[in-house]
UniProtKB/TrEMBL annotation:
This is IclR family transcriptional regulator. The keyword Transcription applies. The keyword Membrane does not apply. CDD domains: HTH_ARSR. Residues 7-66 form the HTH iclR-type domain. Pfam families: HTH_IclR, IclR_C. Residues 67-236 form the IclR-ED domain. GO terms for biological process: negative regulation of DNA-templated transcription. SMART domains: HTH_ICLR (SM00346). It comes from the Bacteria. Keywords: DNA-binding, Transcription, Transcription regulation.
Amino acid sequence: MTIGSGVGVLDKAAAILNALENGPTSLSQLVELTDISRPTVHRIAQSLVHHGLVGRDMHGRFELGNRLVELASAAGEDRLVSAAGPILIKLRDLTGESTQIFRKQGDFRVCIASAERPIGLRDTIPVGTQLSMKAGSAAQVLLAWEDNERMVEGLHHARFTPTILAGVRRRGWAQSLGEREPGVASVSAPVRGQSGRVIAALSLSGPIERLTRQPGKIHHEAVTSAAHELSELLRVQNDHA
C-alpha cells in the first residue's frame, strides 16, 4: 500500500493518475479504483484536465494528458525504454528471434523498444509502430488483466476470445499464430509496474515456420523470465529514484 505524503489533495491526485495508467477510465471506475468519493474524484480530475495532466477521450472517459508526455520528455529517457534495451537484446540473442516492448496507448498498442534479428527471415516492427489491440499475443497480454468493463469492450471484434484471455491469466503468457499478420507467430508476457499492474507487454515474434504452431511451448520460459527481469529492474529503479 502506498503511504500518503500528508498532503491529502496531492495524494488523491496521484491516486487518480495511477488509476489512469492502463488507459481511458470512466468516473465510476475511478471511484472504484481510488476509493475516493465521486464528487471529490470528479473535482480533482477536472482540475487535472484544466492543467493538461489528464484528458478526455471521445467517449468522455478520463485518460492521461499530453502534458505528462511533455514532462516525461523533459525529464529525460523513458525508464521503461532504457531498462528494456539490454533485456530485449539478451532475449533476441538467446532465441534468435526479434523482440519488442508494447505499451497500450488509447485504442492501439505502440512498439516503444525493439531488438531485431540481424539476418534472415524476421518480423520487423519499427519503434513507434501502432498496432491493433484486437490481435496478437501482446494485445492479449495488455487486455487480459484489465477490469471487466474494459475487457468486454476490448474483446469486441477481437481475434481472440474470453477463454483465450483466461488462459493467458492462468499461464502468465500469451501466444498467437497469424492473428496480426499471416505467417507470423509471437509469444508475450506482462511487464508490471511498481503497483503490480501490467504496464507493457514484452514480446518475441517471427515466422511460424521457425517458431512452429506452438511458439509458447518453445519460448514461454525465456519470454516470461525476461518480462520478470524487466519488472524487477523497474521496481528497483523506482525504489532508488
